[in-house]
Specification:
The chain has ten helices and 13 strands. About 40% of the residues are buried.
């Protein structure tokens, strides 16, 4: 694979369909995007692995939704890794890239040598879809089970959508000749096309009675699904993350007998929606007394974006519903509020 082809597939999502099996899917490569996300935080290896996994899942799931604004994946646990969050922002127009961001919170003193997923503890995996102003956000939740975030996502689709889904993900740091080590990641998603799946009446065969693909598919559909999964099991880590094997070559290697058909690839980039106005809007519900408690000894209110690391500083008098000056420090008319205006 040439250097030019390698760059062409960096930070892309390639949709495909297996015509013989009536299965759709996506191949994702996150190179610069993941390196950008992880390089802004000094995460321990276990936390980096979980952030990489949730970023890959977000990149694969986001394009499957007819999305006008944002899809979010969130994980909350009782273990050393407390929170994982990732957002996928839909492209703003034809030919525009989608945007991804991801972040984690953790208790460094509680991290140990166990596999990363086990260090999340008990908790839940949530999928949130926000189609923007005028819509009601959707939220689907599934328990943490199956030994990986991928398994949790598979359970979500089986439980909530009755769509058998499979993820195969890989990530790590690699060093090309003459370059510094850089994060690279890749993954593949398989999913049956929507149809008329069976409806389990007494729970599923998975952990804790959760529904799995075997509980939904029957007959030839089950045979097609099992065959595609057996083929996917043969994929190697270096084939997923590259750079020596391109996604189209990988699909041909794995599924040449399933008649793979590819569609236009989509670019993704790192993107964050934080801004000073958004922070002001968030703080608009607080009184002057509340804002005073947030004020530092230096006489300012600060805020840091957990996703991108952006740092914001504000004049306390410009915040909350009792603000007396606007963002530029100009006096507000009586009854005015700079924060409320920003929120609007």
């Amino acid at each position: 694979m040439s250097k030019i082809n390698q760059i062409a597939w960096d930070d892309t999502v390639l949709p495909f369909q297996l015509d013989r099996s009536s299965i759709r899917g996506r191949v994702v490569r996150l190179d610069g995007v993941l390196d950008h996300i992880l390089s802004r935080h000094d995460y321990p290896p276990a936390v980096s692995a979980m952030v990489a996994e949730i970023a890959l899942l977000t990149a694969l799931i986001g394009p499957t939704v007819k999305l006008r604004w944002k899809l979010s994946l969130q994980v909350r646990g009782t273990g050393a890794i407390r929170t994982l969050a990732a957002d996928y922002y839909a492209p703003e127009g034809e030919g525009k890239p989608a945007r991804i961001r991801a972040w984690a919170s953790f208790d460094a003193e509680r991290l140990d040598a166990r596999p990363p997923f086990e260090q999340i503890g008990e908790g839940y995996f949530a999928v949130l879809i926000d189609q923007g102003p005028g819509s009601t956000p959707y939220q689907g939740i599934t328990p943490l089970a199956g030994g990986s975030l991928s398994s949790c996502a598979q359970t979500y689709f089986a439980q909530s959508e009755q769509l058998p889904t499979r993820f195969q993900l890989a990530s790590g740091q690699s060093r090309l000749s003459g370059q510094d080590a850089q994060w690279r990641a890749g993954g593949m998603m398989l999913q049956t096309l929507p149809g008329n799946p069976a409806q389990p009446t007494e729970g599923g065969s998975g952990e804790g009675g959760l529904i799995e693909a075997a509980d939904i598919l029957q007959g030839s559909e089950s045979e097609d699904w099992n065959r595609a999964n057996i083929l996917l099991d043969t994929v190697e880590t270096l084939e997923l993350i590259g750079p020596s094997v391109g996604p189209t070559d990988l699909l041909l290697r794995l599924f040449h007998e399933e008649t793979p058909r590819v569609f236009d690839a989509h670019k993704v980039e790192f993107g964050c929606s934080c801004s000073a106005d958004r922070v002001r809007g968030t703080l608009s519900i607080y009184s002057a007394k509340d804002i005073a408690h947030m004020t530092t000894p230096e006489g300012i209110v600060t805020a840091d974006c957990q996703f991108c690391g952006a740092h914001y500083e504000f004049d306390p008098a410009s915040l909350g519903f009792e603000a007396t000056v606007d963002a530029e420090g100009n006096p507000l008319p009586e009854g005015g509020s700079a924060s409320n205006k920003a929120a609007e």
